[in-house]
Write a structure and sequence with these properties.
CATH superfamily: Protein of unknown function DUF2790
Number of domains: 1
Strand order of the largest sheet: 1-4-3-2
Order of helices and strands: HHEEEE
Number of helices: 2
Distance between the termini: 64 Å
Strand content: 25-35%
CATH topology: Spermidine Synthase, Chain: A, domain 2
Radius of gyration: 20 Å
Largest sheet: 4 strands, mixed
Helix content: 10-25%
């Protein structure tokens, strides 16, 4: 009976922790990159993985600027699936 209670409580704690998302990033608008976009990147926080395809795919980068503000930038990049042979 105690094991069942511990299992139930631990699953509730895991669910509650999974719902936690930093509000400053969750509410950030995603900026679209263009050639005229001025980039002020002081620190890259994360970058999306580039798929193994031979075509242009969307990618995201999360970064902090020189003032410490967090940004999310969406841009296009060529996939990693192209070969020269």
């Amino acid at each position: 009976m105690k094991a069942l209670l511990v299992l139930a409580l631990s699953s509730l704690c895991a669910t509650a922790m999974a719902d936690e998302v930093p509000t400053d990033v969750a509410q950030q608008p995603i900026e679209e990159y263009t050639y005229s976009t001025h980039l002020d990147i002081a620190k890259v926080v994360s970058m999306s993985e580039i798929p193994n395809v031979c075509e242009v795919v969307p990618a995201k980068m999360e970064y902090d600027d020189s003032k410490g503000q967090r940004h999310i930038l969406r841009y296009s990049v060529m996939g990693n699936g192209c070969s020269n042979g």
